[in-house]
Specification:
Strand content: under 5%
Helix content: 40-55%
Length: about 475
């Protein structure tokens, strides 16, 4: 039996601590056998530098859930009484504005749990006694659901753009879009009836009316984008104009609502919100301070977003593939946010159909017709089953590459170069295949008709697209 190996352990704790103090912030020790992976693996859970659950800031968190807030009387649900404060009109205005700030912060790449879902009212909608607040909360959840659907379906995002994790929360409550809009219209009509009867409404009620109108059109626009059809493009443009102009009245009345307060410890306080309530959900990730967008900045962000989406609707004016590609390139140069970029790709190529109508391969076919005028696209050759099969196979493969190109142009600038660089080998393979298709078609057509000359119709067009992608990649370097 062999004896166990003997080690002479040396305590280097003090030396290691002294050496680590000389490292600047953000630097790691690197050795041949100790790289980034080993350094990150050495930081364990329960370390405040990596574990959000060990920040030791529980004293800043007043409640751990909406139920606890209701029990402690910290979450007013309806009109107040002599011994119990209730929710005021100014509070509803402030909650509506804060929800919009949280949605904009979420669209800037932060997690849903640390932004929108910090609103305790969203977790206790059935218990709210104010119909206006109920309609606004349902509208906020419905907007988040529709935004999530459009962005996740388009796939034009990376982890720095948009976080898809919902942490088990249900963004699709048992309430339809039409019901949400109906609830908002009820609140709108209630205030409008007072105006029609000649009753004066105060600044707070007027501000509430403006916000209800905004939420109504926000839901309508997002719903029309999700269910996009080309025939509904004009109504969508009209609703977008109303939505864009609905932001200015909100900005002018921001002072009317209850304002959020930031303490000396950078902890934000606002009625109906607990910004640390979901901190335990992030225990396995590095702690990150989330700075909720300010309300003036939120209004500017929304106006820029709606202006970009209105620009997206002009894609319907592009009748050729070359004009579509130019539109995508010019749009990406404006640095749009993840939602507007996703709307462009989602609306143009939803379900592999251009603007929800004709197949993408048909648009590509028309583009190649204009570019190189291949005789294989015309009668009587297209009636030949062999020719038709070769052309169909080529168009199907081409559609995937062009779709990837358009999708890459809908990513952020930092990811575009990487996406386009990864696309170049696929275009190279497509070019080789297109040459084979050209040769096969030329031989086949020459055997059936000595005057037929297919030439290099497919490969020339693919080469043109490849050069365009190469030039765009070089510009981004």
């Amino acid at each position: 039996m062999t004896s166990p190996p003997q080690y002479e352990w040396v305590d280097i704790t003090k030396k290691f601590a002294a050496a680590s103090n000389t490292l600047p912030i953000g630097h790691l020790v690197k050795d041949q056998n100790f790289g980034l992976f080993e350094a990150m693996s050495a930081i364990e859970l329960m370390d405040p530098k990596m574990d959000a659950g060990m920040l030791c800031n529980k004293e800043l968190c007043q409640v751990g859930s909406a139920e606890e807030a209701i029990e402690k009387g910290l979450l007013p649900l309806g009109p107040g009484s002599a011994d119990k404060p209730g929710i005021q009109t100014e509070d509803i205005i402030g909650i509506s504005d804060e929800l919009l700030c949280c949605i904009c912060t979420w669209l800037n790449g932060h997690s849903l749990a640390q932004t929108v879902l910090t609103c305790l009212y969203l977790h206790s909608i059935p218990q709210i006694q104010s119909p206006v607040l109920v309609s606004i909360c349902n509208a906020a959840l419905k907007c988040c659901e529709l935004i999530y659907c459009v962005i996740s379906t388009a796939g034009c995002y990376e982890e720095e753009d948009f976080l898809t994790c919902t942490y088990g929360y249900n963004l699709s409550p048992n309430i339809s879009t039409s019901k949400v809009i109906s609830l908002l219209k009820d609140g709108e009509e209630e205030i409008n009836k007072k105006i029609k009867r000649g009753q004066e409404i105060g600044p707070a009620e007027d501000a509430i009316l403006k916000r209800i109108t905004f939420w109504k059109y926000f839901v309508i626009v997002l719903h029309k984008i999700q269910m996009f059809e080309k025939k509904n493009i004009e109504p969508l443009k009209e609703d977008l104009k109303v939505l864009f102009h609905a932001v200015s009245p909100i900005k002018a009345t921001l002072h009317t609502g209850t304002q959020a307060v930031v303490t000396n410890l950078k902890h934000r306080k606002m009625i109906g919100f607990e910004y640390l309530v979901n901190q335990k959900l992030l225990a396995s990730t590095p702690p990150r301070y989330i700075e909720i967008m300010e309300r003036n900045t939120m209004c500017e962000h929304l106006m820029r977003l709606f202006a970009h989406i209105e620009l997206v609707t002009k894609i319907s004016d592009s009748t050729t593939l070359s004009s579509v590609i130019r539109f995508f390139v010019r749009f990406s140069e404006q640095n749009p946010c993840v939602l507007s970029r996703s709307c462009l790709f989602y609306m143009f190529l939803m379900g592999n159909k251009v603007l929800g109508e004709e197949p993408f391969t048909k648009v590509i076919k028309e583009e190649i017709k204009t570019f190189s005028y291949p005789i294989s696209f015309f009668s009587p050759y297209m009636s030949d089953t062999n020719v038709k099969s070769l052309v169909t196979n080529f168009l199907d493969g081409t559609a995937l590459c062009i779709q990837d190109y358009l999708q890459a142009m809908c990513h952020n600038k930092g990811r575009q170069r990487r996406k386009l660089g990864a696309l170049l080998p696929d275009l190279s393979d497509l070019y080789k295949k297109s040459e084979n298709f050209d040769n096969m078609l030329h031989r086949y057509l020459s055997n059936t008709d000595s005057t037929a000359n297919h030439m290099r119709s497919f490969s020339c067009w693919v080469l043109f697209i490849t050069v365009e992608v190469c030039s765009k990649t070089l510009i981004l370097i």
